[in-house]
Write the structure tokens for this entry.
Amino acid sequence: MSASKGRKANPEGRMPLKEHLIEARNRIFKSALAMIPGIVIAWIIYGQLIGALTKPLGDIEKARGIVASLNFPGVTTSFDLKLQISLILGLVIASPVWIYQLWAFITPGLTKKERRYTLSYMFASVPLFLAGVWAGWIIWPNIVMAMTSFTPSGGSNIMDALDYLRFALQLMIFMGVAFLVPVVLFALNAIGLVRGTTYLKAWRFTILGVTIVSAMAAPGSDVMSMFFLGVPLLVLYFGAIGLCIINDKRRDRRTAKQARETDSTADLATPLHDLEEI
């Protein structure tokens, strides 16, 4: 059934649970197919990618005179690592597709006005997600430097290859998702569902939630990992709240102006010719 025909027959976008599950399965399948080109590309450029991700270790050895290298403890570790990196890079490259599929799964239940809002935010989500991944790539060397800065002279950092590279990729994906937070918050505010002050009142729970998520995303239990993961998300969250509050004030001024205009014309008599046309 086409989308236009379905909307005419079912303008509220309602469907049974079974059809929801089928729709979700189809969109997940399309997203998985879109990952295949990225997986192939990552498989081909795996050597260059590993070289770029491990470059901070060489810089540490030159700057501090300590041993900093990766350890591949198992027979299949190298293969597992290559497969994981290929999957994650495929997810990043396919982000325009799976973000669209997520939008298309949600929008049938929205009104026409809400769909128009979410469409514009969907177009903003793709570059923001990629910008977040790029930001994670940029700050990665600094994180490695900070996390290894406590190693004393003469010591060595022999790191597990899976932990090291998984942390790098988790950081980039986490940063990409973090950059989407302002879009989601502002979208809910723009359609009038949540006010900025409501977000602000929940700041304690937000900090707690970000701390928990950062602890889960970081491969180790060190404070520095949680710090570098949590702070960007908090900055983006409170930045989005500021934009929502500004938008609320603008909306409140517009509503007050309309109310004043309505009150000023409420006591005026209806012209005779308008009454005759009724």
